[in-house]
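Ligand-bound model needed. FE2/S2 (inorganic) cluster.
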Amino acid sequence: MRRRVSSGAAPVNQGGAMTRKLELHVNGRVHTVEAEPDSMLLYALRDNLGLHGPKFGCGLSECGACTVILNGNAVHSCVTPLQAAVGQKITTLEGLSSDGKPNKLQQAFIDEQAAQCGYCINGMIMTAQALIDRKPHATRDEIKTALEGNLCRCGTHMRILRAVERVTTGHAAQGGTP
Ligand code: FES
Ligand code: FES
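Prediction:
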């Protein structure tokens, strides 16, 4: 399930920068970043930590390109205030692989050649991973529902669906319609 995270925070400071040192738990490591607490998690991940798996697409919680997993839920990091993520468990695309090797789901995306331009793929994988973590044998309908908020302008939806099903069913699909 995709969730926006609300912090109940004051509006973003429009004047001089009011940064603070904030502790982020990302991909099993603790990082201290200096940033404005009301700024969005996506920017800290990309600009402070150099994690470029999450992409900036719309910045409006419309496309899913920026998706990360926060405490087990797929969230849009472009609208997640940094202070709402402090001390929480954050996983980015980079955190799925180990020893430089893709995990099962990443490998399935490679095997299905699911990426065309690739811009949406971070969000597709992170959203699907959160679903699989929760429901390892999710049905096709459940996968489609989970991915509803992730847009792919290249139209590779069938290959993306087949990639996720490689993991949920344990074998490669023989084709079929979405
Ligand atoms: S960039 Fe976050 S949803 Fe589009
Ligand atoms: S592969 Fe290009 S937007 Fe999905």
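The longest strand covers residues 20-26.
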